[in-house]
Structure formats: C-alpha cells, structure tokens
Amino acid sequence: MVVDAPHLALYWVCMITPVTWAVFRWDKWCARRGARRVPERTLLRLAALGGILGAYLGMYAHTHRHKAGKESFKRPLRAIAACYIVGGSALLVGISHARALLHLLIR
User: Fold this and answer.
1) What's the confidence (pLDDT) of residue 100?
2) I need a surface site. Which of 2, 85, 92, 97 has the fewest CB within 10 A?
3) What is the pTM of this model?
4) Domain range holding 64?
C-alpha cells in the first residue's frame, strides 16, 4: 500500500492532535496539584508539529482554562495557528490568495 503525502499528513494530524490535547490536560493536572509541569517549549513544539487543534482544545474546551490568560504563551500559539491557516490556504487556493490572507491576519 502506497500512502501519498496528503493522506500521510492527515494521519499525522489525527495522531498528534489527541496527544497534544492530552499533554495540555496533563500539564493542567500537574499545575493543580503542584507537581512538576510540562515545559511551555514542549507544549508549543507539539502545537507546531501539527497539534495546533489539540492545543486549542486543551486550552479552551474545558471549564478550567489552561494557559488561556497567559499572553506570553498565547502569542506564539497564535503565530503557529496563523502559519497553519496560511499554509493550508496556500495549498487549497493558491499562493496569491494566501498572501492576502496573511496580510489580513497580521493587521
């Protein structure tokens, strides 16, 4: 069986999203108990590796918001999300439209 690049990317995102969500929830669990935390760098790397949806779900999809009020964490996470939005739109609609979208996002 040969797997092409788009399917491989989809498989990767389907695997990394729940992993990222679980690590964000684990970090919240550790924070509430005073245990050793997951470094923010690790959380951001997981988001950058394709787990951006899991990162946002881990931050906002629960009654106990995790890192949602920390601007120094949200800023790089938004930059990662913008890269995925622009990259995805470039693949779907072409480079020229992606540039226009990038200009809208950074205003």
Assistant:
1) 75
2) 2
3) 0.77
4) 5-106
